[in-house]
């Protein structure tokens, strides 16, 4: 997902429903709900061209190498030219939102170095995939098979796109049945969907889903935009049993409770690991998304996160010392790297091909190496998290950001 949707002009007659439907239909023809937002205020792309790019030793890049470009986050180092030192090394890479139904994204996966994670006495390379791999089960299995060939360990949690049914040809009764099929495929391929320790690092996948009440910030009412049901394809592409719905917290609670079956394994990982990385597809805190006034679709925060997720990961990390706790997430396609209340939050999305062209986050830095025998202590540059690391959040401010106001003023009418 990524944030914006053209607004719909304030209706002046009984044709408002038709106008809204046409606008939503026109949008879906050209955009996804979560297309990229503009750069934050007072941060021009030229500033990021001038920024010195720090490198993480031993991180990989897909091949063939691409020309350097402006990036949303710091670039990883080029593919290693020399052998990994003889001492055992644990490296953990993270990525989300692969969306390999796009041929360009599947090509990116296939270009990852085949020798990664060979483990020939040199250590272990693991990959954490924070959801939204592919829309169909077959594409999902093909993608995970390629990744499994390249990494000694692969971890996964499901995203919303993974549970869509619209292209499955009636294969599954509902999205829960498809979830079971995806987890079965992971088991067959040797992909981890439960807690496990790699070296000194505990890796804990957390199942989650979003709920509207996650959004607690003031709404922007100066423009009319299509409803969530019209704008968010999940409401149509996913199917649920009658007692589960996106209209309340039922789905979020259901997915959160799926983690209870791993309680004993989580406790074992907590007791045996020096550091812990948890990961989910959805967003655990609203502060990890730009304010509504910055977004082209201000309803976005209602379909991105879960309070239950944040409480659960906080419980897991409760006794970690400084620098020993990290949570990786996905879904919004915003590169992110920041520390909030002593936990580091990272998003490293591949996202859609059009976003990579338009948003300054080329794929050269992915998958992001977040751990190499310990978490790297440096916080890496990412446009939006950099902005909020330096500027206070203003959730009560509903005055549209200049680029959003300009967009609406150009194409739509205000109330």
Structure description:
The chain is an alpha/beta fold. The chain has a single domain, classed as Purple Acid Phosphatase, chain A, domain 2 (4-Layer Sandwich), CATH 3.60.21. The chain is 28% helix and 12% strand. The protein is built from 13 helices and 10 strands. It has a 6-stranded mixed sheet. A 4-stranded mixed sheet has the order 3-2-1-10, with helices on one face. Helix 3 links the parallel strand 1 and strand 2. It is globular. The N terminus is likely disordered. Pfam families: Metallophos. InterPro entries: Calcineurin-like_PHP, Metallo-depent_PP-like, Pantetheine_PDE.
Structural key phrases:
13 helices; alpha/beta; disordered N terminus; 12% strand; Purple Acid Phosphatase, chain A, domain 2
The CATH topology is Purple Acid Phosphatase, chain A, domain 2
Tell me the Rg in angstroms.
21 Å
- Average pLDDT taken over every residue: 82
Major beta sheet, specifics?
6 strands, mixed
Number of domains: 1
Short description:
With 415 residues, the chain is of the alpha/beta class.
Element layout with pairings:
Elements: H1 16-30, H2 45-50, E1 89-95, H3 103-110, E2 123-129, H4 137-150, E3 153-156, H5 175-189, E4 196-198, E5 201-205, H6 228-231, H7 234-237, H8 250-257, H9 263-272, E6 275-279, H10 307-316, E7 325-329, E8 336-340, E9 343-347, H11 353-358, E10 368-372, H12 383-390, H13 402-411
Parallel strand pairs: 1-2, 2-3, 5-6, 6-7, 7-9
Antiparallel strand pairs: 1-10, 4-5, 8-9
Helix pairs in contact: 4-5
Protein name: Calcineurin-like phosphoesterase domain-containing protein
Domain Calcineurin-like phosphoesterase: 91-333
InterPro entries: Calcineurin-like_PHP (IPR004843), Metallo-depent_PP-like (IPR029052), Pantetheine_PDE (IPR052963)
